[in-house]
Amino acid sequence: QVQLVESGGGLVHAGGSLRLSCVASGGTFSRYGMGWFRQAPGKEREFVAAISWSDSNTNYADSVKGRFTISRDNAKNTVYLQMNSLKPEDTAVYYCAASGWGAGKYSYWGQGTQVTVSS
Fold first, then answer.
1. How do 113-118 and 10-13 pair as beta strands?
2. Torsion angle (degrees, nearest 10) of CA 71, 33, 55, 91
3. Which stretches of the chain are assigned E, i.e. beta strand?
4. What is the C-alpha separation between 101 and 70, in angstroms, rounded?
5. Over the stretch 12-62, which tens digit does the pLDDT of each residue have?
6. Percent of the chain with pLDDT over 70
7. 29 has which bridge partners?
């Protein structure tokens, strides 16, 4: 059973930056496509970014392109989401997901970390 634990969320002013981390355990991390999703209050969960198992392919939602960067360190079983130029509309619970691709289905999910961007 794969377990995912996110960290790095918090409160930041608009224009600021945060880096989210997601550590995986219990599986073969290096074989998994990884993704980040988010869910704002009263809204459905939406795709944010994804990275292939080989780190050679990345995919981003249009709303975060040019501001967010997904990366991974297979030696540390960790995937990151660097978020720059944050906007109040980025406020959401951010979830890490494993064993999937792009905005598609994933097999494993973390518990989420809250990101709040104040104006």
1. parallel
2. -20
3. 3-7, 10-13, 18-25, 34-39, 46-51, 58-60, 68-73, 78-83, 92-98, 108-109, 113-118
4. 13
5. 999 999 999 999 998 888 889 999 999 999 999 999 999 998 877 999 999
6. 100
7. none
